[in-house]
UniProtKB/TrEMBL annotation:
Species for this entry: Streptosporangium album
Transmembrane stretches, start-end: none
Biased composition (Acidic residues): 131-158, 196-206, 233-250
Designated name of the protein: Replicase polyprotein 1ab
Region feature Disordered, mapped onto this chain: 130-158, 196-215, 225-257
Amino acid sequence: MTGSDAFLPIMADCERGLGRPERALDLVRSKEAERLDRIGKIELAIVESGARRDLGQKDAAVITLQRLPELRDTRPQPWSARLAFAYADALADAGHEEPAAEWFGRAVDFDEDGETDAAERYAELTGTVIEDLEDDEDDEDDEDDEDDDEDAADQFDIEEIGDLLVADIDLQDEDVDEEADVKIDDAAALDAEIEAEDDLVDEPVIDDNHRDEAPAVEDKVEAGVGPAFIEPDFGDILDDPADDDDDDADEGKAEKK
């Protein structure tokens, strides 16, 4: 209707869906098919493979897709999921279950958007659910993460224990230093007390000596001070020697009488 050849693969697939695989193959061999781009030709080859399967040409259906070089491209492309699924479906229909399962697995890898039911077909052939495989991979990743976390925790514990041991040693050293300082301070205080006691012991002796000597000094002072307040008595020292001689003469005269 639009004059474009891009809808040719869709038209051929509709003929196949209507149960007219021969009409679908006629469109595949038409001149319009030669003007399709690469993606259009790949889509038309997929429809051709399905039409040949409908006609019972199972090996021809497989060969139709094997001729495409894009089938061996491991890089993800817009057609990769649909092409891998169609090839796996053709292999399974031809009785090649083992390679079919492999290609269904490839289709799952390419089909990130869930465009095909490759996961279900893979599960039918192998009995293994793709989701279980993904869960197993996730579990392995989780286990690896847990192992890494445990290793990191163990390393942290070792470092923390090492830090605590170093801190304990430092505290012990500080305690030893404090004890040494206390002992030194105690020794210094003890020496000061001993010196103070020696001074106290020496002081009473000095005081006693002073006290013993003090009365003598006081006596001397009193002896020296006493005469200063007593009337001088010179005795006979002040008598005239001539008077003594007169007294002696008078005593002699009296005896003669």
